[in-house]
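PT: before anyone asks, these are the final sequences, not the draft ones from last week. 245 residues across everything. Please model them as a single complex and drop the result in this thread when it's through.
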Amino acid sequence: MDDQIVRVISRIIIPFIQVYGIFVVMHGHLSPGGGFPGGAILGASIILYTLAFGAEAGAKMIPHRTSKWLESGAILLYIAIGLVGIGVGRTFLTNRAAGFPMGELGNVISAGFIPFITIAIGIKVASTMITLFHTMIGKDPH
Amino acid sequence: MKHAFLIVTLAGLLIVMSYSFIQMPAIGSEEHPAFNEVSQYYLQRTAQDTNALNVVAVIITDYRALDTLGEATVLFTSVAAVLSVLVVAHPKPNKKMDEENHG
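LR: through. Structure below.
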């Protein structure tokens, strides 16, 4: 798509979409939202960028190698957080009893491992959407 | 004979399922099996168990975290399936053929 209006408007609103997506992911344990919707918002911002600026620019912004590492790294981060529970002698994915810092009720940094797991889910969902979109439009250089 | 057996079996199945559907409690009624002590436990103990305010997020990332790991695996599998179907591995990329195919 080669449209000046779409490019200008996209350049203005994409940062706001990404900040909103990061907000939804970071406040997953405090407000409605979480990893899945926040990651979808982040992935949608990259999809909008690809639609407005073309497939080559989108593939240059998030190359296939980067999204591959993000995807595998997010799920490995999830499993590593779960293995901490086994490391201290509890079950897989133990939160409070495994010694994660609980913080104060209502703070952004609180609730043990829940923010980290939400961030991992957000990265996973965003990179999955980006990879699927870039693959299906067929211009993804490997 | 085969047809009659099929019709009788399906009709019996329809009667059984309709009867059990009529017996189901209404959505939101107090006799509903989903309205039990588990939801009470979640609503009462979430704050002191995890120090988080969003009960839904606590259920999917703490109480049911293994299930969410399975969901992440579903995403991973979907990407792997799409890539394996759509991406053809070119050992030596032939530029002329590539342009013909994608042109």
